[in-house]
Amino acid sequence: MKMKKGASICRVLAMPILLLIAFCLNFRIYSQECPTLISPLDGDTDVPVDNLIQWTAVDGIIGYLVSLGTTPGGGEIINRRSSGLNNFYQPEVGLPSNTVVYVTISLFLPDAPIKVCPLRIFTTETVTTAPDCTELINPLNNEKDVLVNSNLRWNYATGATDYRLSVGTSSGNYDIVDSQLTGNRLVYGFGEPLELDQEYFVLIVPLNENGEATGCIEERFTTGIPTVSCQDSDFPTITIPDQIGLCEDQGFGIIDSKDIARGYRWIFIDSDGSETILSEDSQLRYERVGQYRLELYNILNQFGGAIECPVSKNFEVVYSETPIISDVLITRQNSGLTLDIRTESSGSFEFSLDGPNSNFQDSPIFRNVEPGERTVYVRDRYGCGVVERAIEKELSPQDFPVFFTPNGDGYNDFWQYRKPEDSNEIPYEVIHIFDRYGNFLAQIDPTSTGWNGIFNGREMPASDYWFRAISFTKKEVKGHFTLKR
């Protein structure tokens, strides 16, 4: 069946009504006519470079896409730019002069692919004069309280193909941007934020192949003046110690600040007073001793600028080392033991009887310690290691000599507990001595010179004798030894 423009088919009553409506709608969309270029007209010549591009309105669409190119179907000038439902588009930076411009209008259709309409062309005029001057639109001339992260924007100067930009902090002194060509653009962004409470001077000179605009006026604006100041609650809390250790057996150390702040700066202070920033996060890796400073800061923002609320503290990195226990001096009193821990090196150590991870004290002396098997711990306070040493070892008959010779020659004349070479500790409280029949002969103090082989004023004969040693923890050790004459 032959059909004419979509509406005629709608009179076919045999089709179901819903199918008929859908068919009619789709037919109308896909048969949608393309617009006609009306400004400029298709094929026009000597078109002004700032001409508004306009076309006839099309019903039943949801938007337009515009492309302007210097080649058929190209988008070298603008590429697929949306104009919404406006049937016109104003190129922001104008059109190139003496150029054939290809126009492509595309239609956004509801529930259908984009429809690309046939090309239209026109030729722009030949610009023979330099452009006129332009003016700032952001910020405006003499504007106050400008955000420090603002971009400069200016109006298009008809016929301009480039702009020469100068920016400075005083009139005629362009110390920020000096005669920089921006290209055919109407915006300039600074690489870094501007200063707060600072007046800036701007000169924009449009230009093209015929020359530069003349008589352009310098404009100015001023960034915001901060009205906020740091309060006590705005400053971070800093808790770094006065000294930090660098372990001599390691090439570096790492310290991690647990203080909460927006920013961190770890600074090394050289002997000549010069400073070097080593890190700007919460962690520092350090490799040498000397003077350092930690700076923490929070930030308040106003007018796009940042105001720091800083605190700082100097600290020193010093060499440190793993401690070495040289001895534990033990003094026994009625109230308990007194322990005096001696170390070989003079580092910064702390001491504990309770384990390698808790309850350390600065003093190496412990008083009123209950007798028994104990272990002392010494820890380098800078984290260079922990060492330990038992101060009452396992008791054994081997703690005592197997014989002695009380003949008065000055050698081996007394029998007594034998202290180990690496400790002065005496774990025993009393020692009893018996003959081979179990008769009690002597009670000796383990801290005395010992038994000389005499009982009731007479020398005991060469023979085997027995002993019973009782420790401070009431443990008993039994054994025998030989008296030789």
Automatic annotation (TrEMBL):
InterPro entries hit by this protein: T9SS_type_B
Name recorded for this polypeptide: T9SS type B sorting domain-containing protein
UniProt organism field: Maribacter aurantiacus
